[in-house]
């Protein structure tokens, strides 16, 4: 028997340095033109360029740290102003130990430093925050790219988070537009004809991890196109992936 | 500028039903022949076929449940014999609440039901356990396939685990052979020339999630080939991904 055609993951290398106010959808569409995009393609965009386009940059020289930020930063050799920004981006501190700040962001994401990051940002005194509403960010990019293409293009916005129990960070979905974020196989028969239990797949997170292979960490390749994978239909959101606190055994 | 060639993920559909004692490496090599495998390809194999080949199947009719298993199973409408198998596969119960058993397996993995699973297994009274040593399983498959191919083929063995704070399961790596499981970018400059901090990427987990797109949940496609991604060199192991308990803030 023949092997079916592969799923393909293209890294789109030619996104120019993104500046506040840029129309990121238009930049992405232009950079992907040599491909070009075809119906069924899924766009996966790293958070950093989205935050830059949305001016989610903070000049640390404008920040007055609180007593808690000063104390923590002194103990663990951090920048107290950056710590202050992390505290302001958090609605709950999940763990605060050994120099590590695990925060619940205002979106409900649980991650180190509330997603505040200084890497790949121009300017020594600037840090980058997560988008205010990553689902709205994804929707804006999807609308612009879909209008240029003449067909609907689903968009996932990603960030790299650590997780309990396992080493290393992985790319996950923080914003989704134009597709479902989860696929629910409950009630469907398995290969033996028995009903499958508790099988809800976090497909947007798996697509985010797959895209990371093409994004790379040091290459300037913030956009990937996944081709040949049928995105699950639905009006998914990044927040669908955030577990309801009342159901979470780990709060 | 042109777009670089994509990373490709092939699902290998033609693995026959695997039986205890089968040489899984030989079956995989034969099924992938129409591709064929080329140097640089990474094989990603789901745990279920590995466990079947290694006869990690348990006939529930041979199991006498303990008092704890009987009590729990009665309260939550579970099969007490299957609960007993879960307890036997665990070295620690992490959470036991609302019918959910989160266990630390003897390998150190933390997952629901210690990885014991009844789906996609022939026989109403049979459950499937994780491989005893998934790194050794990966090494065996890699050795057989590499010998047939005449070049080294890295192998990742995967399973689908839930995680705290986020909905849905994702595919992760439980066994690795012929490549590094983690990529450490610490000390490397970012795109702005600044040193990156705390950036260790769980690349084997991301490859596992990428492969899941081709494995599917209902298709009988337990093997995927990832092509065009330069696997990080090293003697990685699935257990590299398990966080040292003394460093884990979530124990």
Which secondary structure elements does this structure contain, and how are they paired or packed?
Two copies of one chain form a homodimer.
Chain A: E1 7-12, H1 24-32, E2 42-46, H2 47-53, E3 57-59, H3 67-76, H4 80-89, E4 90-97, E5 100-105, E6 110-112, E7 126-128, H5 134-149, E8 155-163, E9 166-177, E10 183-184, E11 200-201, H6 203-215, E12 223-227
Parallel strand pairs in A: 2-8
Antiparallel strand pairs in A: 1-12, 2-12, 3-7, 4-5, 5-6, 8-9, 10-11
Tell me briefly what this model is.
The structure is a homodimer of 251-residue chains. The first copy, chain A, is of the alpha+beta class and 251 residues long.
What key phrases describe this protein's structure?
alpha+beta, 60s Ribosomal Protein L30, Chain: A, CofE-like fold, 251 residues, homodimer, three-stranded antiparallel sheet
């Amino acid at each position: 028997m023949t092997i079916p055609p592969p799923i393909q993951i293209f890294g789109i290398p030619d996104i120019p340095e993104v500046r506040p106010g840029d129309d990121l959808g238009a930049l992405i569409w232009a950079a992907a033109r040599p491909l070009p995009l075809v119906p069924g393609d899924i766009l996966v965009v790293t958070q950093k360029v989205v935050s830059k386009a949305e001016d989610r940059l903070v000049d640390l020289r404008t920040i007055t740290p609180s007593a808690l930020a000063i104390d923590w930063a002194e103990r663990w050799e951090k920048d107290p102003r950056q710590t202050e920004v992390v505290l302001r981006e958090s609605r709950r501190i999940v763990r605060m130990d050994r120099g590590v700040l695990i925060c619940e962001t205002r979106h409900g994401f649980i991650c180190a430093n509330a997603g505040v990051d200084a890497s790949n940002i121009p300017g020594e005194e600037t840090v980058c925050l997560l988008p205010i509403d990553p689902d709205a960010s994804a929707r804006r990019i999807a609308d612009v790219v879909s209008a240029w293409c003449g067909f609907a293009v689903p968009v996932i916005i990603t960030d790299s988070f650590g997780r309990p129990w396992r080493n290393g960070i992985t790319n996950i979905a923080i914003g989704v537009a134009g597709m479902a974020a989860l696929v629910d196989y409950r009630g469907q028969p398995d290969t033996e004809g028995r009903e499958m239990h508790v099988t809800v797949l976090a497909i947007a997170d798996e697509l985010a991890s797959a895209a990371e292979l093409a994004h790379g960490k040091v290459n300037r390749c913030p956009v990937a196109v996944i081709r040949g994978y049928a995105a699950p239909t639905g009006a998914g959101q990044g927040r669908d992936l955030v577990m309801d606190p009342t159901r979470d055994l780990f709060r």
